[in-house]
Each structure stands twice: as C-alpha cells, then as structure tokens.
C-alpha cells in the first residue's frame, strides 16, 4: 500500500493544487490542523486551529467522506452498548444494525487506506451526548439522520471532484448509504423510504410520464450545510470546516 | 431574410410552432434590448437562439454527444420502469394497499426523473415523443409470463430494474464530470433508485415470510436463500439474483471487468477490492466483535455497470414496437 497516494491524484494533476493544509503542533501530538494560506476563510467560524479542515478537490471530498463515515461507524459501535440494542431490538433489527456497523467500519478503513497520508485528517472524537441509546425511536431516528445526511452529503460534494475514479468510488459507497437510509426509514415508518424530507416529491398532473410538478430527485446538501448539521456530534477540536468545498 | 416567412414555413411542418414560441415568451426578454438597432447581420444568430430556446430549452445544444447518449439511455430506462409500475397500478388489482402505496411513490419518482431528463435533453431526447407502455415487454420474451398476475414475479422484476438502475447511473456518473449540474442531478437520481431497490428487497423478504407492511421490515434475510430473502443491499452476487440464471448479468461483471487500480472497470457485485485495496482484509478491519467476511465487504460497496452491458440487459424488455419507435440505445 506504499503507493496508495497516487491513485486519485493522477488525473487531477492539471488542477492548480493549492496547499491549504499544514500539520501544526506535531510534537505535541495533537494532530490539530490549521488553515495556512487560505484566502477564503468563512466569517464567523471558530478559530481555525480548533477546526479540522478537510482540504480541497478530490482529497478534500475524500476527507469529508472519511469524517462522515467515522461519525457513522462510531454511532453504530456505540449503540451496541445501549439498552435498545441489548434488550429491545428484534432479531431483524439487530441483524440490520450489525450489517450497518460492518459496512460503515469498512468504509472508514477503506478511506483511511486510500487518502494520501500527507493530507488525511485525524481520527475524530465524537460527541453523542445528545442521543438516547436506550429507546428504539431515538436510536433509529439518529440512524436515519446519519444515513440520510450521508446520502445528501455525497451527492452534494461530487461537484468538487476532478477525477472520474473518485466519482465512481464514492458512488459505490453512496448507494449503499441510500439502501441503509431506506431500510431504517421503513423500520421507523413503513413506506417512508423516499419521504418528502429527502426526495423532492413529483406530483403527477396527468397520466402521462413526466407530466407534473416536482422532480423525484434526492435533496442533496452542500458541504457547508452538512457540516452545520454534523458538528454538534463532534467534540471541540474535531469539528469540521470545508472552506474549499464551496 | 424574412423572419415571419420562416415561421410560416415551419408551421407547415410543426403546427405548434407558435405555441412553442409563445409558451416560452421569456426568450424575448433576451432580445428586447436590441430594439431597432438589430442589424441584418445579427438576424441569423437571433433566429438560431430563438429556436434553440423554443425547441431545445436550456442550452442542450451545447451538450457533448457522449453526455446526450448517457442521458438518453437513462431516459429510456426510466420509461421502462415508469410503465412497469404504472401498468400494475392502472390495469391490475395485484397489489395490497401498502405495496400499492410504495409502487405509486416509486412510479412518481420515475416520472419526475423522466421530466428532469427530458428538460436536460430538450430536442435531443430519444425518442422525441414519449413511448407508450406497449414499447416494453415485461415478460422479457416469455421469461416472466406471470409478471402482472403474481406479486412475487412482479417484485422479482422490480428488484431487477432498480438494482440495474443503480448500477447504470453509477457507471454514468464519472462520464458526467465535465458538467457539475448534470453530475449532481444524476447522483440525485442514483440514490433514489437505491432507496427504491432497498425497499423492494425489504418487501420481498416480507413476501417470502408471508407478511407485508411494517412486518416486512422485520423479516430476516437469509444468506443461503438470497434469491427470495435478500438483504436490502446486495450481498456477493445475491446468488445471481432473484431469478437465476436470467438475472445473473444484473449482478455480474461489466466490461471491462478487470483493470489496474487507477482505471475505471466494472467488476461483479461480489467484488471486495476497491482502488487496489482489499476492504475485507485491510489491516485496520476489526477482527473482534464485528468480524468482516467476504459478504459484508462486498455489501459495503455497490458496483457500477458500463452502458453496453446495461443496454444488453434492458434490451430483453423491449418489445417489437419499442424497436420500431427507435429505442435504439437498447441495441
């Protein structure tokens, strides 16, 4: 795996690759990342040295994906010790949650392996203090939030990619997240797999295909919006910023 | 150049020319500033713009042919799906209340996708007029004779269409990278198809257990009976799909099936190597509480299909009429 850094970099070399990232405080072992030379600091964000900047272009999106997958994987690991999983969940629900835990862990490990060591973000510290892991409703609602958000995030970040291979590779992950999302939604409310909060509803005007209002499209989200929604689940020092994915 | 004469000539061929121009009256906003100073030299450009707006809608004339082909294949797949669901809803009483609600939701999504794709393609949409249900043969040449009389068969075919759609859009996405808007649109269809596929699979587990509605989501999958009790995601090659051997191609490899890590290639759904990394045996994989195996490693990644293989599969569902009206991208 020594040449892992080359896979996604090759066909994006024509892009002017500004270097936003520098490791800071390496001797302190904090692995904190700071913005260096960034001209596009968003106003009102916390001081840069407390945030994790994901970077730009393909590596930025891969880091962004890596962050979201870390959050999901940590969630499915954490719920295994909660009262819902240990005593309430049905056999089917346990089987589903076990699969999801494996899938998300697999995504984390893959992304950790494929992102060049010089640009990968650190292992994030999560904060699930707002989630009640003891009831079915609260656990599955949180799972739904993370899965739906993952889909919206991947779809909304693809425009920052430059390499077709990265598009394909992340496409392989996002459809699995969508499958997860649909099943969790069906567990909570059967037939809500494409609910109006995640898919723009198409309302037919006649019996003819394509005639009506709406689109039937997933409601993708920008990195800025997704980060707003996920940062409450990350500890200080692990909160994300994606200044270049905008 | 006599502009009115041109319109009149076009009217002989297209009686709706005035309506086309009229319903898109906003195109005139773009030329209003020109006023009287419009020179003869500028007229051909103006006329060209006017007709691009009237017939072509938003800028499709600039789309590269490669992208047009991708979108047209997607459009024809959407028609295939739309009429499949519409037909069961409008011509049969096969489905129970819960499943009819789901199929209605899915049909409407597909209809929205048709609208979005046609808007992107404008005059370059193929076929130019919407096909009818008769353009498709949902028995696939007699392989599924009971497709509209047996719920089990109907949802078998539904799973095929949805899983195929996911693979098709995934294969198309990298080719849309030059157009960020269309890339995001295609991905926003792709994930909706995956949601459909997940639900159909959940529903089929219920069918196998003799339950429907919320109980279907409580039915257990079986790794040894994936054809009838699939997970909501694809595990390995799903035992070659719900109706092997016919459905094997939907879960099998595309072309090229193999390649070096940095290239685009299309392995079967059972693939566990991503960008040169074996995601099952990577050193960071857990070995204790949640042991990974080939099944879970393959489930974690859906695989794409190239357009040629997608067409080959879809062609099984084209009727003679469909061929005659020019669903040529299935060829």
From TrEMBL, chain A:
Protein name (database record): Ferritin-like domain-containing protein
Source taxonomy: Bacteria, Pseudomonadati, Bacteroidota, Cytophagia, Cytophagales
Gene3D superfamilies: 1.20.1260.10
InterPro entries attached to this UniProt entry: Ferritin-like (IPR012347), Ferritin-like_SF (IPR009078), TAT_signal (IPR006311), TAT_signal_bac_arc (IPR019546)
Pfam families on file: Ferritin_2
Organism: Hymenobacter aranciens
SUPFAM superfamilies linked: Ferritin-like (SSF47240)
UniProtKB/TrEMBL annotation, chain B:
Database matches in InterPro entries: Ferritin-like_SF
Tree of life domain: Bacteria
Database matches in Pfam families: Ferritin_2
CDD domains: Ferritin_like
Entries under SUPFAM superfamilies matching the protein: Ferritin-like
UniProt protein name: Ferritin-like domain-containing protein
Biological source species: Hymenobacter aranciens
